Amino acid sequence: MPFKPTALPPAADLWERYSCNPLTGELFSRKRPNRTQPLGHREQDGYIRIHLKWCGIESGLHRVIWKWMTGSDPIDTIDHINRKRDDNRFWNLREANPTIQSRNHSNCKLTTHQVATIKRLLANGHGQSELGRHYNVTNKTIHEIAAGRNWADVSPNLDWSASGTTNFVLPDGG
Predict the structure, then answer these.
(1) Which pTM was predicted?
(2) CB-CB neighbours of 90 under 10 Å
(3) Nearest of 143, 167, 140, 145 to residue 155 by alpha carbon
(4) Has residue 148 got a pLDDT over 70?
(5) Residue 42, strand partner residues
């Protein structure tokens, strides 16, 4: 059964009851300062959960650390950038909608920059089959991009200056 996040208690209550080490992603009880083991337990799905008994809430530790650090509940979901569900260091956490989060998986074959390039090449008349072969994805994947059903939020005019990526040319010179 998937975990359903609930609103967490106010940040001030979290700050009063817990100390957080953002460099290790660990949370400790201020009421039990001699306890050296961080709070939370690892679930079968790899996430670390914490039971906030005083308010009757069980939550993913990543959500509690996010609120402890930012002072607000995540707007949507929290993504573990390095894909390690038990790595709750603050730099490894980011707010992400399900679309963005689904791209941060090992089975996602295309990057945002590749999709922007595909969109530009499609606009310049390159065939879907040709691009599918080049990027080692199915024709359906390219068709879904072309139809705007997948990766609709990626612009073909993505700003390349910050990425250090050069213009892309297909091996046949196209």
Answers:
(1) 0.62
(2) 18
(3) 145
(4) yes
(5) 48
